[in-house]
Design goal:
Blueprint: H1 2-10, H2 19-39, E1 41-46, H3 51-54, E2 59-61, H4 63-72, E3 78-82, H5 85-94, E4 99-101, H6 117-130, E5 135-139, H7 144-147, E6 152-154, H8 159-165, E7 170-174, H9 177-186, E8 191-194, H10 200-203, H11 207-216, E9 221-224, H12 230-233, E10 238-239, H13 242-251, E11 256-260, H14 263-272, E12 277-280, H15 293-302, H16 311-327
Parallel strand pairs: 1-2, 1-3, 3-4, 5-6, 5-7, 7-8, 9-10, 9-11, 11-12
Helix pairs in contact: 1-2, 2-15, 4-5, 5-16
């Protein structure tokens, strides 16, 4: 077993994943698997996590997709979310009957932190004086409290469809200014008012890296996350969510790719699609990399750190998520979300 794991992890970093270290990792993975069985837990790992965490995950993917997969697992009592805080809140929103654990409280999100509930309330109140039809569209990379103030949520892959489908002419798009510009480009008939936030990881990536790779490797496919800057998005072959990048790389006849996002995705692709070549124009997210196998083992041992939400916040945030499915024609009927939430 250790030999196979060594072979996989060395595709990512042969200098770090030496045999002795991988053997210790494998021993720890076995302890975590045993704890998962004892706790009746499922473990979710976002695409940006450390490679060794993928090995013990029941599901890998993007944030909302993971939460929905967990909601579909009827027999589990516990969700261990290896991602960041807002993702664990989303899991709790759609699966309130399950215990949701975030293994390390340092796993926050600089983008989500740019939009607080009081600031959103103030901004909405101000804008509605000028735009009575204002709708609040909130990217899933936000706290549950901000989602609860929204008309509808969206993901990076369906943001354009959601904004196009919502009946309002004026849209406050929270919190990512780069994704807001991407949406405005594709829905020019609407007025998009962007919140002044961005992901510090994606915002650091500049066009010169991409232009250099195109010169060095003719025919390389450039896959860019919509959280990147506009001047980077313009150079992409495709602007895709993390899950969209994975699907594109697997299905494409091309052999060389540049995944322009957090580095964890390149690690996942290098392991999962070894017959193709994945180059890096990426940055490390200190929040995504905050969770280690030690944290996961301790979390399951001590049942820490539990995510709790006020029920009124959970219901309203859930309604914004459900509205997203309604607008995009993919209604989910198994989420613990009421049909309507009375005004307070």
């Amino acid at each position: 077993m250790a030999e196979r794991l060594i072979e996989k992890l060395r595709r990512v970093d042969p200098d770090y994943y030496i045999p002795e270290r991988v053997e210790r990792i494998e021993e720890q993975l076995e302890r975590i698997r045993r704890l998962k069985r004892e706790r009746n837990a499922v473990l979710l790992a976002h695409n940006y996590q450390r490679p060794e965490i993928f090995e013990v995950a029941d599901f890998t993917g993007d944030s909302l997709g993971l939460s929905l997969q967990a909601a579909d697992v009827e027999g589990a009592d516990v969700i261990v979310f290896c991602g960041v805080h807002f993702m664990a809140e989303t899991a709790k929103t759609v699966s309130p009957q399950k215990t949701v654990l975030l293994p390390n409280l340092a796993a926050g999100c600089s983008l989500a932190d740019t939009a607080t509930a009081p600031a959103v309330e103030d901004r909405v109140r101000e804008l509605k004086k000028t735009y009575p039809d204002l709708a609040v569209v909130t990217y899933v990379n936000t706290t549950a409290a901000v989602k609860a103030l929204s008309d509808v949520c969206c993901t990076s892959s369906n943001a354009v469809s959601v904004v196009r489908a919502i009946p309002s002419q004026h849209i406050l798009f929270i919190p990512d200014q780069n994704l807001a510009r991407h949406v405005a480009l594709h829905v020019p008939e609407k007025t998009i008012i962007a919140w002044d936030g961005y992901c510090y990881v994606h915002h650091q990536i500049t066009p010169d890296v991409i232009e250099s790779m195109r010169r060095q490797i003719p025919g390389i496919k450039i896959l860019v996350h919509p959280e990147c800057r506009d001047d980077v998005l313009k150079l992409a072959d495709a602007a895709l969510s993390t899950s969209g990048m994975i699907d594109f790389a697997k299905q494409s006849s091309a052999t060389d790719f540049l995944a322009v996002t957090e580095c964890g995705l390149s690690d996942m692709l290098q392991i999962g699609v070894p017959e193709k070549h994945f180059y890096r124009a990426c940055k490390i997210c200190r929040f995504m990399k905050a969770i280690s196998l030690d944290d996961v083992e301790t979390s399951l041992t001590k049942m820490q750190f539990k995510i709790e939400l006020e029920e009124s916040v959970r219901e309203r945030a859930g309604r914004a998520i459900q509205r997203m499915f309604e607008l995009t024609g993919s209604v989910r009927d198994n989420l613990a979300i009421p049909d309507s939430v009375p005004d307070e």
